[in-house]
């Protein structure tokens, strides 16, 4: 029963509810995940850079197309909020909502992170996820969601009437401004809905509300991506820490996260090319 429902069910309610659920998109037509290509490439890769993201803060990083990057847990359980942009055009960025529609509420190995319209192409492919054993728990929770948007100071002010400056939205805004050598006000609108790395979330069974529970991530765990285009990334260490209690405050233990960049051997990419933009003609019927 919905909280404010006012209308009695019609006599054929059961029949209307009994219609089959069908997956919205013909996702079997998506470009296949070529596991042997990525596995071969990653076996030849060497680490070329590393960025440490301090607790309750964010850092930016660049990943050339054809390189891998890993987000690595260190010191303690910590959730990360990830933004991705086309390194050469900030208007092309990660599209959390379409990624959710094409894959699922939570993503893992073989899933892609898609860019917004009109580009709509894979920005990155997930190639390894040490938390893939978790699957779905008794509460319906899973790991690495593309449901939640990011903690932000505006929602926090609306609900709690305090100015808190280390929400993921603010952390990402500062990191992006720093990477572009500009002011936060000029760049804030480029910060977008995130991939919630390592976060354990779902919807409550009775009211379908978004919930979080303590992340099962432990030091040494990582999620690994292959950059399908030249990427600019920013990663925030959420002030919620493992997101097992609260967020948008300084009360939870928080830990650093590490972003590692890896370069595969040139021969592993001999037949590979960065992903082209979407092929729709863009005329919208005119
Ligand atoms: Zn956050």
Automatic annotation (TrEMBL):
Pfam families: DUF1989. Residues 52-232 form the DUF1989 domain. This is DUF1989 domain-containing protein. PANTHER family: RE64534P. InterPro entries: DUF1989.
